[in-house]
């Protein structure tokens, strides 16, 4: 896809190949730019200003006096790199620290060329690995106990920096009595298997664990608390990310029982869980007043929206017309693709109109496939200037597993896109030679489901090419076997493999639509 082509002549096969490759490289580059915006260095340097001459640390306008009074704790899939930056910025002032990260993280980061995210051997911050498969375990519990012990002994002169990212809930388990670690494990398993969302599970966790729902900040009293948070939840609710350990809790235990009953999970949960919640329900929860929380500063440093903006900017630099469709995409991966398909269909319909019709009401409506003005504007600019439109979106979809194959939500979405594009161009046969479409879906953490790929790319010729290579995309989709298919298709050309990136701001989708006709879409 040449970025500004206006030619009506059919390109030569060799041009097509290099053009397709170029576009693939460009779209990958747009995705990688989005990932880079979520790297610890980039995120923290925006919010953290340190003046060594006065030992003043400024965090989004708030000043802290640093004098060998700094402590660092962290938990989540993307906190190691942040801990490294804290070490670099505050060096000798750090007295002690503990970060709890997933099992095998350090080895994975080294294997993926991110040794620069590891802590130096002289660091005062200790690293603990645990929570295998994102489930609370004994190692994570031990790390949580040590973190609790660390924050419990601080004075009002101390500052504790709390590094938080997705996966943090499982990495900081601390059951309230009489619950046990095993009860926490059961709660997670039972609720998820009954169809709970992450906010359902975390709402329940908050009332059953000591350090969640503001608990860590409470235990750190009277120290000052500054949290740097990377969001992996839709809507970026601070209460929900890693179950909000430094965020004032406002929900009551009533809400947990409602969730449990909505999911029909009461009977499947350990009895003691419901007993604790029932008992809490009748207690009047003494909430600390707002002023009590003045010593706590929560700063959101990484979000899917920031990543989408970075992607849009890079797309523009590459000569595309970008627009951000949504940063809150959710739902079944193979169905979410219809949202993008709507764009393509509208553009194809618009391209078929006569010049007069394009000027009329019908033309205008077709160029407004989404009701936001910014999106409509971009579609119009792309259409009028015959430039490729780059639709950027983000969020986190789900996959209702029915098959036994290997895949992830992004690879599955790309596969579903390939199938839908085929059907779309069967309807708009006359536009096939004139329109090029490339779609990418990938996870910013570099790992899509239990595979070593981040996601995949797909173009409008995928079905024809796949069948000619002896592959059966329909069967692969039915069997949730997208990874096997993308590994085989064109020798793995369209599989996106980045390795673990060290950040985690959910997923990114990019749709590029180019019209090779002088008259525009
Ligand atoms: N064969 C498969 N095909 C498609 N999706 C799959 C398959 N196996 C697992 N998944 C999906 O992968 C997801 C779990 O993988 P992953 O670890 O990337 O997600 P996660 O635990 O939500 O972590 P994160 O939010 O950090 O990406 C689940 O949504 C699950 O439905
Ligand atoms: O750890 C968690 O609770 C989830 O990843 C959401 O942040």
UniProtKB/TrEMBL annotation:
It is an enzyme of class 2 (transferase). It comes from the Eukaryota. One of its GO terms (molecular function) is ATP binding. It catalyses: (R)-glycerate + ATP = (2R)-3-phosphoglycerate + ADP + H(+). Residues 27-278 form the MOFRL-associated domain. InterPro entries: GK-like_C_sf, GK_N_sf, MOFRL, MOFRL_assoc_dom, MOFRL_protein. Its EC number is 2.7.1.31. The keyword Ion transport does not apply. Keywords: ATP-binding, Kinase, Nucleotide-binding, Transferase. Residues 390-507 form the MOFRL domain. GO terms for cellular component: cytoplasm. Belongs to the glycerate kinase type-2 family. Pfam families: DUF4147, MOFRL. This is Glycerate kinase. The keyword Nucleotide-binding applies.
